[in-house]
Amino acid sequence: MQAIDCAQRQLIEQLTPITESELVPLETAVGRFLSEDVHAQQDVPAGDISLFDGYAVRAPLACGSSRQVAGVTYAGDAPAALPEGDVVWRIFTGAPLPEGANAVIAQESVTRSDSHTVTLQETMSPGAGVRPKGADSRHGQRVLSAGTRLDAAELGLLASIGCAQVRVVRKPRVAIFTTGNELVSPGKPLEPGKIYNSNHIILVSALTRLSVEIVDLGVLPDDASSIRTALLAAAKDVDLVLTSGGVSVGDADLVRQVVSGIGKIDSWRVFLKPGKPLAFGRIGSVPFIGLPGNPVSTFVTFFLFVRPALRALAGGDPQIDLPPLSLPLTRDWVSGDRPEFIRVRRERAASGETRLQPFENQNSGLLSSIAWADGVALIPAGLRLSCGDRVDYFPFEGWYL
Questions:
Q1: What is the fold of 4-19+170-313?
Q2: Which of 37, 90, 257, 270 stands 20 to 30 A from 389 (CA)?
Q3: What is the C-alpha separation between 15 and 12, in angstroms, rounded?
Q4: pLDDT tens digits for 212-244?
Q5: For residue 199, what are the CA distances in angstroms to 212, 218, 294, 296, 299?
Q6: DSSP labels for 43-102?
Q7: Where does 325-400 sit in CATH, by number?
Q8: What's the number of CA atoms in the CB half-sphere (13 Å) around residue 393?
Q9: Cα separation of 284 and 281, whole Å?
Q10: Domain boundaries, the chain
């Protein structure tokens, strides 16, 4: 069995990033990866602007100085010019400074003796109260690099420099299968010996969150010939073939055997709980990942292995995970012979301390444990932990980045 980090590294090293790209509107680019660097085509802001409502002045200017108000500029107005003499200019947040002004005093920092005269209550220095030209980005500056995943902040930055469209890597095409004669689609009658196919919706939902093109090929029966035909057909026009189930050691676990015959298995079994029976390799030139069949194992190994693989295919950084939080457990815990990701939920103690409450039953077939939890804690192998001992905690929300 391979250690988790070794298996992740081996999987990533066999992937070839997608080189095809497409131009898409910003509104549809969330979750996508830039295929090229983006440079600003102009200064942002285009000129000096006011940080707040107040008065544009020529600094330096001493506290107690009185000045006449010569005009007014609102955000969106064309730049004005500050007349010569002892004058100031009424200005509002985001408005361009009049030519000749170099500072803005907040309206709370002046007194008005009449509608046209103000007296400063503080000394003004050049640049105070001003967002200078190019403070956000300069013409020609690289604002985002190829491989950046686009989310609200990045898309807002692109909009601020005038981009309406952006060139991104084509979405990875992922063929998905779930396997097993026992599987029935939700909504259909459940006959004796059958179970509802939860892994299908886990994979579809997770892949949708990660901006991929899903090629949903349904359920594979426990039949080697049918599996072989389906996998060969799927590998013709996708970037990754993904299955759940059929990669363990049972007589009906045929997926790994079939892939070994029509392609290559590079790794099988990971030193991990839940999720030991994980396989990856190739079908022809197309990467293959076979996830375990137990639902919790499918969920955990998807985010540990499939997610970084998809990032690598799209040209992003596969190891972008946020560092885990170190939080104490609410109970004693004895780990087994493998590192274990246990399902936990944060709770606030009376002292105000955040602690981790493990789900009572850590069986890998219990999806209720995942729905109850808000993350997982990594327990190294062979440890006896006491209540209050700290462990690494990975919140689920971080897995969707």
A1: Molybdenum Cofactor Biosythetic Enzyme; Chain A (3.40.980)
A2: 270
A3: 5
A4: 999 999 998 889 999 999 999 999 999 999 999
A5: 17, 11, 8, 9, 8
A6: -BSSS-EESSSEEEE-SSB-TT-EEEEEEEE-TTSPP-BPPSSSEEEEE-TTPBPPBT--
A7: 2.40.340.10
A8: 23
A9: 10
A10: 4-19+170-313, 21-44+136-169, 49-131, 325-400
Model pTM score: 0.87
Find out whether 232 and 264 touch, Cβ atoms under 8 Å.
no
- At the topology level of CATH, where does 49-131 sit? Molybdopterin biosynthesis moeA protein; domain 3 (2.170.190)
User: How far is the C-alpha of 3 from the C-alpha of 272, rounded, in Å?
Assistant: 8
pLDDT tens-digit series, residues 137-177: 999 999 999 999 999 999 999 999 999 999 999 999 999 99
Rounded CA-CA distance 33/47 in Å is 31
The tokens for 186 are 């939700």
**Residue 150: which of 170, 174, 166 has the closest Cα?**
166
In the block, residue with structure tokens 């300069």? 138
The superfamily CATH assigns to domain 21-44+136-169 is Molybdopterin biosynthesis moea protein, domain 2 (3.90.105.10)
Residue 207 in tokens: 């892949």
